[in-house]
Design goal:
single chain, mainly alpha, two-stranded antiparallel sheet, 2 strands, globular
Length: 436
Amino acid sequence: MWVQSKWLRLHHVVAAGVAMQALPALGADTVPDGADTAWILTSTALVLFMTLPGLSLFYGGLVRSKNVLTVLMQCFSIACLASVLWYAFGYSIAFGSANAWFGGFGRAFLAGVDEASASGGLPETVFLMFQMTFAIITPALIVGAFAERTRFSAVMVFSAGWLLLVYAPVAHWVWGGGWLQQLGLLDFAGGTVVHVTAGVAALVSALVIGNRNGFGVTAMPPHNMTMTVTGAGMLWVGWFGFNAGSALAANGDAGMAMLVTHLSAAAGALTWLCIEWLRFGKPSALGAVTGMVAGLGTITPASGYVGPAAALVIGTSAGALCFFATLWLKRVVKIDDSLDVFPVHGVGGMLGTLAAGVFASAGLGPFSGQGLAAGRGIGTQLLVQGLGVVAVAAWTALLTWGLLRLTDRLVGLRVTPEQETEGLDVVLHNERGYDL
């Protein structure tokens, strides 16, 4: 069997269409590169660090004190669940070779994988473990949409189904040799696979589960911004593994991806702060870290294809667009996406995926990138990028809705109003985050 490279470098593609470039056959006499292997091992640890403890602390500080332990528990447990499911079926579905839509079960339970198996210039165990960390953080991101009102059993059942039916197939489409990769979609590190899927799933979840009791009437401020800022810093550092590691090599592409990731995060944070300062009179720590995450998420799909100047444009655009998307969702349409997953990750992922189609062009001076295939113009690439966004969003919305309905029938999605008032830490886990 053949394992497809996670990211297709389009400047290597010849012919009128966009053809896949397969990695060497598993088990072939491929000697892994030591430097590349060391870097991807490090990146794997960094991406896991994003979830545990980065995302856990970031989300934990944003909820009320009576629910902090529940959010930490959900992130931690999803990491465990996703790891086992990735071993059992997820890796096979995402990176198997059954067809352009579904990887199949030929590699279920890592059939044929041992310490000698190679995936390009990496040991296959390193490649699949790196991919596992992406499969861990993506369903964990969705937790922020229904925080403070969802049963723990429902979170686990939904996350299991979502990983196998939404995340893994989309990963195959975009990174595993699937139909979007064959069309030439540019998604270096997860604009569609991670951020569009998580963001759209978050929006659907918020709509299906409903608003928290008192939303829009009772103030629900973060209970511990120190925890949130600490988690945000961990996310920023971990994101270097997320994006720069996606080069799958210790080379110039990884270096450029790291540089543009950092610049976009900084630009996103500064932009959000400035808008907040002008609009409300004071900048906030919450605004700074949210803008940073918006910048990180938005640069993700373009990080391997654009230069520093483009990164500043993308980060600035992310800070502005995600800021107003957040206000619109909460104040205009009044949807309780508790921790702003859709306006930050969903909107940012869509913006970044489209931006990759523009700034990957080699003819934009200081904004130039290197991602477009020879003979492919910006307009054509934007059509591919737009198709990718629409297809992934539609698939995610449909399957997420169905999984939520099924989960509600099986275990019930939401706690009672009385339990929500008491707090999920005690109700669901018989523990407290704080005992002061």
